[in-house]
Amino acid sequence: MKRYPTDGLIVVLTGAGISAESGLATFRGAGGLWEGHRVEDVATPEAFARNPALVQRFYNLRRAQLRDPAVRPNAAHRALARLEREWPGEVLVVTQNVDDLHERAGTRNLIHMHGELLRALCLACNDSMPWSEDLSPEAVCPSCGGKGGLRPDIVWFGEMPYRMDEIYDALTRCALFLSIGTSGQVYPAAGFVEVVRESGEAPTIEINLEPSATRSRFSEHRSGAAGELVPALVD
Ligand code: BV8
């Protein structure tokens, strides 16, 4: 980060591409399909109401993947954790991802704006709790005495992402904005670069295998694998 002589706030947005080299499938890599279903058709409250077993299976399979010892943080996750340790200013990672690879790499200042695969939400009392096993329609909430069923604590399409006030506050204050491994197709995350541009002169850098849908809004684009380009940038 020698090229950026500042100790200001760095905001880093990450998407599924940063976890691809850890073996986790991206959304659009498989053409946005899972077992023939469009993700946008499975990751919705309507899909869960219509066919809870299908939606639970979608997340149980992905949760089980996280338990696979072969799925580990990669060099990009580790470089961001090092940046947080070594940067003189604050570093905030805002991830669209629901995996726990940033935490396992050592990142502390982290917002999961789309929720977390390893947490469940009670349909009755709205309590969120750690949950690493399979979720079934029969699972009941321990907080409200079994009155409510449990859903994945995931932000579905049509639902409000988490901690948006904190995210927008950081975007308007940041001295540098990095976007890593996202196709820029899902809002409001895809609009974050605009918030930064409207707030001042902070450089905005996109690191992605290919130009994203919002590439033209970034001051710089670096094409390539996050596992190579993020450590190189942090150095
Ligand atoms: C909301 C949890 C309002 C689920 C997810 C029409 C136009 C514009 C917007 C909308 C519209 N209709 C509806 C909307 C809004 C909608 C939206 O944006 N839809 C899109 C599809 C058009 N958004 C919402 O509904 C959001 N909520 O707007 O609420 C509101 C207001 C008031 C009150 C209530 C509500 C909620 C969106 C959140 C949905 N949940 N995730 C789950 O994970 O199962 S989104 C899902 O997509 C994931 O979180 C994923 O991370 C995210 C974005 O995808 P990416 O991360 O970018 O992944 P993708 O595969 O697309 O791209 C990966 C990239 O990495 C690729 O470019 C690839 O080239 C690159 N790559 C691959 N390998 C590597 C790499 N790069 C570097 N290195 C590598 N090795």
Automatic annotation (TrEMBL):
Q: How does the cofactor bind to this protein, according to its record?
A: Binds 1 zinc ion per subunit.
Q: For Zn(2+), which residues are the binding ones? A: 122, 125, 141, 144
Its needed co-factors are: Zn(2+)
**The UniProt record lists the keyword Nucleus:** no
Question: Where, if anywhere, are coiled coils annotated?
Answer: none
Q: Which reaction does it catalyse?
A: N(6)-succinyl-L-lysyl-[protein] + NAD(+) + H2O = 2''-O-succinyl-ADP-D-ribose + nicotinamide + L-lysyl-[protein]; N(6)-acetyl-L-lysyl-[protein] + NAD(+) + H2O = 2''-O-acetyl-ADP-D-ribose + nicotinamide + L-lysyl-[protein]
Q: What class of enzyme is it?
A: transferase
Specify the domain of life of the species encoding this protein: Bacteria
SUPFAM superfamilies this protein is in?
Answer: DHS-like NAD/FAD-binding domain (SSF52467)
Task: Provide the binding site for substrate.
Answer: 59, 62
- Main localization, broad class: cytoplasm
In the UniProt entry, which residues are flagged as the active site? 114 (proton acceptor)
Q: Which family does it belong to?
A: Belongs to the sirtuin family. Class III subfamily.
Fill in the domain comment.
2 residues (Tyr-59 and Arg-62) present in a large hydrophobic pocket are probably involved in substrate specificity. They are important for desuccinylation activity, but dispensable for deacetylation activity.
Q: What is this protein called?
A: NAD-dependent protein deacylase
